[in-house]
Write a structure and sequence with these properties.
about 160 residues, alpha+beta, 9-stranded antiparallel sheet, 4 helices, 9 strands, about 30% strand, globular
Length: about 160
């Protein structure tokens, strides 16, 4: 995978819902951070999935929204609890923002399968305080190839 693209994926800011309000995190934290000190939500098993812009191809807003709702419906039919999350590339007004779903308790292989079906380059999977970026597009890299991340809590 292109290193610039990989750094961009790891630096993406996610606004994860918690009872105390949105928790802003990225996957580019220090590898020395002990995950046991992380907020409880980050210690759970979950995936972050989107149906927007397959293979980085920008689609019209209505098409993206329709795909995203189909993804949500399939996840709910699969008995998953989902919550909306927003991923963004940085701070400020002109920032690229893309909705995704936090899928509680999802199995890693199923997250990869959803990423492939919706033609995503990667998906985020987390378990026991350790996030990973998993390649799901066979044209970008080997499907299932993992780039280990570390949570970084943002203000």
């Amino acid at each position: 995978m292109d290193q610039v693209l990989l750094r961009g994926y790891l630096a993406t800011l996610y606004e994860i819902p918690t009872t105390a309000g949105p928790l802003r995190v990225s996957l580019d934290g220090e590898n020395t951070t002990d995950p046991r000190g992380m907020p409880e939500i980050l210690m759970r098993r979950f995936a972050l999935l989107t149906a927007y812009n397959p293979r980085s191809m920008l689609l019209p807003r209505r098409v993206n929204e329709g795909r995203h709702l189909v993804l949500r419906d399939l996840l709910i039919l699969g008995c998953y609890r989902v919550e909306p999350v927003v991923g963004s590339e940085g701070e400020g007004e002109g920032t690229f923002r893309e909705p995704c779903w936090l899928v509680h308790g999802m199995d890693r292989e199923e997250a990869i399968a959803f990423g492939r079906v919706f033609r995503q380059n990667t998906v985020v999977y987390a378990q026991d305080g350790r996030p990973e970026l998993i390649v799901t597009d066979p044209t970008a890299d080997d499907v299932g190839r993992t780039y280990q991340g570390n949570w970084r809590i943002r203000a």
